[in-house]
Specification:
Rossmann fold; 22 helices
Length: 611
Amino acid sequence: MQLQRVAVQRATGAYALMDSLKRHGVTHIFGYPGGAILPIYDELYRFEARGELQHILVRHEQGGTHAADGYARATGRVGVCFGTSGPGATNLVTGIATAHMDSIPMVIITGQVPRHAIGSDAFQETDIYGITLPIVKHSYVVRDPRDMGRIVAEAFYIASTGRPGPVLIDIPKDVGTEEFDYTPVEPGSVKMPGYRPTVKGHPNQIANALKLMRQAKQPLLYVGGGAIAAGAHAEIQTLAELFNLPVTTTLMGIGAFDEHHPLSVGMLGMHGTAYSNFAVMECDLLIAVGARFDDRVTGKLKEFAPHAQVIHIDIDPAEVGKNRAPEVPIVGDVRNVLQDLLRRSQEDGDQPDPQRNQAWLNRIDRWREDYPLVVPHYADSLSPQEVIVEVGTQAPHAYYTTDVGQHQMWAAQFLKNGPRRWISSAGLGTMGFGMPAAMGAKVAVPDEEVICISGDASIQMNIQELGTLAQYGINVKTVIINNGWQGMVRQWQEAFYDERYSQSNMQPSMPDFVKLCEAYGIKGMIVRSRDELKGAIAEMLAANCPVLLDARVKRDENCYPMVPSGKNNAQMIGLPEHKHLEKVTEIIQCSSCGAKNVSTHRFCPECGAKL
């Protein structure tokens, strides 16, 4: 390994750590101190006093990991969090697993008992290295302080390159206090011969992909979180417009393609749009970009995209062909591959053709007309959907975080997000993620609006982070979609367990969230009716302080469409009935086939002709 070295100085392991973090561009650290990590916090005190770093004291280590995660998702930079040994380290595990499942770049620093005590069951000793092996991209135990600079440089490089992910550095207490001749290691100077991510796609496979794209009559571009990680938003739009490709995204891929664009068909999968799910069942070419064919997307895997040939582009070779064997596998960085594909396409003379695949797009638009996402309005109660739509209307460019459950799926359906402005625990589905992730995102982008959409059950998982918001004045807005249930659990119990609502009712002993906010010294609000909604959201957004809005919504509203477990994507339940759709009464006649159609249709539902 070759390292770029600078002047040597006498220093402790703790100083070497903090100096290395600073050299790697770290400005904020989320964490919680404890005995084994105190030498590091003592050095952090000096760095903070000089204004070189800021530490955000969370109220629980799990909140620290989620905050570092939200920071990373909002920026693409590596998020950093600290925790002490023993319970401090184990409290980080859920957040590490969340980042691992969603491929989020993080460096996690844990304190450890002194080297001589390791393995003796010392006070607050846990083998966090061993505990986290399945849920990290890589991990280290620092046995010699002389290795500190190199290890930090390697950790940041590994976390942020290839398929991103969390890297753990476990530091025994005496490593932090030991003095040695410190030689800093500059970012980007490490050489790791055994770690060489493939970033360029194979030219022959790119040519094969273009051949299939030119032949396809019913193609579909299926975009996942890898496109967000690669920053491939512009390339995806260019490709879609060049080949007139309808675009669907996963929960992780939201924001990779403008959902206001006419080629967007929204999210697919268990709670995706009906038209995206029908499209994936009928397409003859599926172009998977940075997606991993997750079970919540595919439904019954053997029946997923049954008529399609598959092009699969991903930086992780382990994902290509793992769940679905592609006709054209391309391993490489998504942005690099798409740039090469577009360059090759331009060299071959491909030109945008607005009529390409038009019959297929007309068919999708018929599904869009017949099976829209519906926002219910009830006479006696607020619907969850109208709360989320109103928030999105008043804050269309905000960064949105979510917790997990019905509110998450409604937010995914109805909010229209830009790149990196959708932050949600997708793979692990971690309740309690939303508010600390919003906290991290707001620290990362302090001049942007950051809003957490949560549920009354999820918010209580990490509600202690209201204290962190209050202490630092972190101007996060939190909207609780409060139906008094573990909403998605209740929906499944209603649909599949004969309405046996076992331990899912959260209404007994529900806290008064407004009073709880007052106890923490932040602004709390409550909304119970449609008449209050618009004004309350405007007041919340106008406040220059953290605010929590408790929106009391219809208790038994279900999230549809829904693909039941074990079914294919076309076997959705809860599709809207045509008789309930609002349509104008003016009748027009199709000039192509003579069928009569209401004027809200853009395409004839009989022959597909444009009206």
